[in-house]
Design brief:
This protein is an alpha+beta fold. It is built from three helices and three strands. Among the domains are: about 30 residues; about 55 residues, no CATH class. It has a three-stranded antiparallel β-sheet with strand order 1-2-3, with no helix packed on it.
């Protein structure tokens, strides 16, 4: 088409070339096609779970104990000491078990709190 153009048909050739470019653009939707605008994708839903960590701290000199709590800092995610309990004396497990048994003996607690099951299953209700 361009090779056949003459000074008399130059304007006509320009119009035809413009039409061909437009047609090629419409037929090639990857680069020049008519695109419909779409909504941006929704961001994924994020669930943040923070754990609270408990630890028993022992005082080296006296053996007293207390409970401390650690939680992560929301900005740095490093553990931060959140709460401290009161210092308590050391616990002797053998003495503690003996004290619990002594209290149970003083109360006269029965062997089984529910008692033996009834002989007749119909009487359970």
């Amino acid at each position: 088409m361009v090779m056949q153009a003459t000074p008399e048909t130059a304007y006509l050739t320009q119009v035809r070339l413009g039409q061909l470019r437009w047609t090629a653009a419409i037929l090639g939707p990857r680069t020049h096609g008519r695109l419909k605008p779409t909504e941006p994708p929704e961001p994924p839903q994020v669930t943040t779970i923070c754990y609270r960590h408990f630890e028993i701290e022992v005082e080296p000199g006296t053996g007293r104990r207390r409970v401390i709590a650690w939680t992560p800092d929301s900005d740095t995610l490093k553990p931060v000491r959140e709460a401290e309990g009161l210092w308590t004396g050391p616990v002797d497990p053998v003495a503690k078990a003996a004290a619990i048994q002594r209290l149970a003996d003083e109360r006269g607690a029965p062997e089984s709190p529910a008692g033996p099951p009834p002989d007749d299953p119909e009487g359970w209700c």
